[in-house]
């Protein structure tokens, strides 16, 4: 059971690189010891679970009809079982006062 399914709601104005940094920090705050956090974020340090982007299936631009997997900055993962999953979504306040959301579709999704 997930204790807190929503770790943060961020502005759509924040760029994907900054979101990746925030996701790494949120994951580290829950999963790392202070020593591990120091090592992960120091210059030249080692972060065992850096943020990584998801992928989307797109049409091959060469026009040959094939589909390719491409990096999609609208989806970011960090960690290892459990992991933190960030994604672009439309978010609104639900009838019960909580939040509700609908994930934005990946490029090429039907």
In the sheet with the most strands, the strands line up as 1-2-3
Q: Write the H/E string, N to C.
A: HHEEEEE
Low-confidence stretches: none
From the N-terminal CA to the C-terminal CA, the straight-line distance is 31 Å
Averaged pLDDT? 89
| Number of helical segments with 4 or more residues | 2
**Cα gyration radius (Å):** 17 Å
Number of strands: 5
Q: How can the largest sheet be summarized?
A: 3 strands, antiparallel
Structural class: alpha+beta
Estimate the global geometry from the Cα principal axes.
flat
Helix content: 10-25%
Question: What is the domain tally?
Answer: 1
Percentage of β-strand residues: 25-35%
Task: Describe the 3D structure.
This protein is an alpha+beta fold and 110 residues long. A hairpin with a 5-residue loop joins strand 4 and strand 5. Strands 1-2-3 form a three-stranded antiparallel sheet, covered by helices on one side. The chain has one domain (16-103). It contains two helices and five strands. It has helices at 16-31, 34-41; strands at 52-59, 67-79, 83-87, 89-93, 99-103.
Features:
single chain, 110 residues, alpha+beta, 3-stranded antiparallel β-sheet, two-stranded antiparallel sheet, 2 helices, 5 strands, 22% helix
């Amino acid at each position: 059971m997930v204790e807190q399914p929503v770790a943060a709601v961020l502005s759509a104005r924040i760029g994907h690189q900054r979101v990746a940094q925030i996701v790494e920090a949120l994951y580290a705050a829950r999963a790392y010891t202070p020593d591990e956090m120091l090592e992960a974020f120091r210059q030249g340090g080692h972060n065992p679970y850096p943020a990584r982007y998801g992928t989307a299936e797109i049409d091959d631009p060469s026009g040959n009809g094939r589909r390719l997997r491409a990096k999609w900055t609208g989806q970011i993962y960090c960690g290892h079982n459990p992991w933190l999953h960030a994604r672009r979504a439309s978010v609104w306040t639900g009838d019960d006062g909580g939040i509700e959301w609908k994930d934005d579709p990946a490029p090429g999704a039907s």
